[in-house]
Amino acid sequence: MNTFLALNTPPAGPFTGELWESNRSLTDEIIYHPFCKGMSDGTLPADAFRHYLAQDLLYIEQDARAFAITAGRASTYEAFSFFIDMARDGLEIERNLHRDLLPFFGVERPDKMSRICRGYTTFLLDTALKASYPESVAALLPCFWVYRETGLKIRKDAVKKNPFQKWLETYSDEAYGSYVEQFIQIAEELLFGATLTMRKKMHYAFRRSCEFEKAFFSEALNIKKDKEKKTGQLF
Ligand SMILES: Cc1ncc(C[n+]2csc(CCO)c2C)c(N)n1
Hints:
Elements: H1 14-21, H2 24-31, H3 34-41, H4 46-73, H5 77-105, H6 115-130, H7 133-156, H8 165-172, H9 174-193, H10 196-231
The site of the ligand Cc1ncc(C[n+]2csc(CCO)c2C)c(N)n1 has 15 residues, from helix 4, helix 5, helix 7 and helix 10.
């Protein structure tokens, strides 16, 4: 059976297929994460979303830097041009989302990165600067692919009049989908041309970023729980 049929954003070939498949339980944990379910059914506590959004504000800037560095290291003009666009247009898509959500949820720029935000952005920048170009591509891919898959899935089940509507729309938008497809194609070609050792390194980088994506959501939910513990409030 072709299990990829269940994917909204399918792999570009056998190598990205293997990449997704070997991380399927982890990506499923992200897609079906209680944080995402909360966005979909509108029950996500506002404090959890505020923590997420504030940290995301810092995350997207560093992520765009990692894209720009990766562009500079690209092995083809096509990939160079794509990553340059992602550093600029990708960040713009995120900024548009934040422009709406930040005032709505009353979120301001935080002074400090959280543990997971620091860990994830340090990993992406370190990989872009110090590891190989294919590894950096693999590290950056979950940010697009996992968000696309999550966005499409949870939008399908989402309640109407949803405070997180803008988030759901951003990642299920067609133009965003086309960026994700191009990105997966670039990763497929790199995996195809890679040695076994390099392929393993790319798998490691992809998995590490997936772990951070999951932790990013978990941290936001746990912050909410920690606050409840301190104040004794349940709602
Ligand atoms: C934790 C976290 N992971 C992924 C994204 C999605 N995303 C962030 S920046 C960008 C475009 C490239 O600069 C995309 C698609 C997010 N917002 N937050």
